[in-house]
Amino acid sequence: MSTSLHHAVTTGDASPLARLQELVRPSNTASMLRFLAEVVQLQVGKTATLAKICEAAAPRYRSDQLDSQFLLAAKCFAALPPARRQAISLHPAFNYWLNGMQRLVLSHEFEKAAEWSQQLADFIWAEDQAGLLMGRTWCSRLDDRGGLRCPAARAFIEFGQRCAGLPVAITPEPAQIRIEVENQGAVYLPRERLRSDGWSSGSAVRVALLPLIACDQIECSARDAGLRVVWRDIMNRTKAIDFFGTTMATYPENPALGPYVGAMDKVMRVWPELGMELPLMTRVLVPTDSGAEQRRAATLPSRNGAIYVDLDDPSLMEEALVHEHAHIKLRYFQYFDPLMREFENETLRVQVPWRPDPRPLPGIFEGVFVYSHVAEYALRRSLAEKGEPESRALLLADWARQGMDILAQHSQFSPNGVELLDRLASWNVELRRMAAH
């Protein structure tokens, strides 16, 4: 692995965390927006670096695929307006694609990288960038259900199960988009119909808009194949899933949206500052059904920006959304600085109050961060509903305090990590004082 690749893809610049104190506790939307603009720049830079590495490898590995389309798609991606770059860069399906591309390139699996790289076109083909996209034919494949991703419209173009996995060529034109599936003929999709749910070409092809919640800011769907992960052991931090692969198991095709809408609306109403921050980073709720007597609430580093959550008691669903969103936020901080020395080292495990099994120090660090958020939410909810704090808020704040005590004994942190812990400690003092009254 080259030094430049390692730096561009895995470290980044620590400067975006210069105002970390303003980002830890939800309060300053302007500072968070500035920080996320830095995340987007990092994502664009990673994509460009990977494209250049693949260009250098092209003479040896299927140059026609590794060279032209990926390089042009990366260039088009970088040239999109800031709002559109952000919408794509922070989407968990894009994060999954980028993490997969990085994994394949770093392991020198360029044959697989050639095919994987084509997916970048899925994210940009419907953008209105006449100078870069018009008249160019983009090659991709339909997904496992015969669909073509269309993030610009938060939709899928559905060709049906019989077309699953088939190659597809997409040619944007000023007034319409020509989409040709191998051996199926061409479909001409008027641009104004991209956001028309249920629009049909007269054949079996139709536009299917994704369900949106939280004032139409967050997708609530398991439609994207890249987000339908194969779960192995959710309690194992390093072996929870298969990185590649997709499944329909545990993902209801037509989930009841009401409980998800209710839980998200409650969170945004009880804690308005969090309600403004949450949709900036949490872009998709993925409804899951883990089976009898099981309740899943999870996020994944490879698909940052997605929360996987089962139907549950409303109050527990609310807390799960706050908890998992905090994981997403912390991971974005760690794009620039792991914050904790030897963050990948999970050898030492210590008993914590929130889990029956001893936890590695990185997991305890994450626990302190997320339970600080959940403690404030529980406190705000009890004050809003009962006019007084409930014991659960103090319990959660105590958990976070105990976690900080463990970290103080066993861990070392970067300067940014020290600053983050200082902010968490002062936040904890305030929460415990308010929860005790």
Explain what the structure shows.
The protein is globular, with a radius of gyration of 22 Å. Helices cover 47% and strands 14% of the residues. It has helices at 3-10, 29-57, 63-79, 82-89, 92-106, 110-117, 120-124, 130-133, 258-270, 272-281, 314-334, 361-386, 391-410, 415-436; strands at residues 138-141, 147-150, 155-158, 167-172, 176-181, 185-190, 206-209, 212-213, 218-220, 230-231, 241-242, 284-288, 297-298, 306-310, 349-350, 359-360. It has a five-stranded mixed beta sheet. It has a four-stranded antiparallel beta sheet with strand order 1-4-5-6, with no helix packed on it. It is built from 14 helices and 16 strands. By secondary structure, the chain is α+β, with helices and mostly antiparallel strands.
Count of domain modules: 3
What's the shape? globular
Strand order of the largest sheet: 8-9-12-14-13
What ranges have pLDDT less than 50 throughout 5 or more consecutive residues? 1-14
Number of helices: 14
Main beta sheet: 5 strands, mixed
Mean pLDDT: 89
**Could you estimate the helical fraction of the residues in percent?**
40-55%
Work out the number of β strands.
16
- SS strand fraction: 5-15%
Order of helices and strands: HHHHHHHHEEEEEEEEEEEHHEEEHEEHHH
N-to-C CA distance: 56 Å
The structure class reads alpha+beta
Radius of gyration: 22 Å
Features:
437 residues, alpha+beta, 3 domains, five-stranded mixed beta sheet, four-stranded antiparallel beta sheet, globular
